[in-house]
Amino acid sequence: MRIIGGELRGRRLLAPPGGKIRPTSDRVREAIFDILGPAWNFPRVLDLFAGTGALGIEAVSRGAGEAVFVEQGKGALIVLKGNLKALSLKSRAWILPVAAKRGIAILAEKGMVFNLIFIDPPYGKGLADKALEEIINGAILAATGIIVVEHSSREEIVPPVGLARSQQRRYGDTSVSFYIEAAPALK
Questions:
Q1: Domain limits for position 106
Q2: Residue 23 within a domain
Q3: Is 45 a member of any domain?
Q4: pLDDT per residue of the chain (187 residues) written in tens, 0 to 9
Q5: What is the DSSP track for 65-113?
């Protein structure tokens, strides 16, 4: 695994041993950032179910001001901390070592709002749907923000009221769905 673009382009990321963590492939990560485009401006990024931190680190490499990583797995936290240290990103990133639901609640309590949110949970557990609901309830998505969900192509993600899927792409067994704030209904 490596950083695809930006100031850290080409730098390697630590990968966890074994198969418990499924990092976003370089191909899918590159496609996500190609879709987001070169002119994006996301001062604050949230990486939920962060794992190795590849998505949030890629965003910081491409100019995001800061990234928050939410991850509860002990092995993943070791790798994530190692990646941030190796890339000298500790001043632009912080880690919440808790479950996604708790992390969203903490961020909401602090009044934090994010311009770009990545959700990459374990497949097949309905965690993406729950995270989308918590994000809306916690009001942590900026008005012009984007949520990117990586999920199994066999999973259908149903966005909660307040979000609309703007596009979806498939890469073999992996799909990537993009969500934005839904336009208010006309009365």
A1: 29-181
A2: no
A3: yes
A4: 899 999 999 999 998 777 666 677 878 999 999 999 875 778 999 999 999 999 999 999 999 999 999 999 999 999 999 999 999 998 999 999 999 999 999 999 999 999 999 999 998 899 999 999 999 999 999 998 999 999 999 999 988 988 999 999 999 999 999 999 987 655 5
A5: SEEEEE---HHHHHHHHHHHHHTT-GGGEEEE-S-HHHHHHHHHHTT--
- Residue 10 in any domain: the answer is no
Q: Say which residues have a Cβ less than 8 Å from residue 105's Cβ, sequence separation at least 6.
A: 134, 138
Residue 113 counted as domain residue: yes
Q: How many domains does the chain have?
A: 1
The CATH number that applies at residue 87 is 3.40.50.150
pTM for this model (two decimals): 0.93
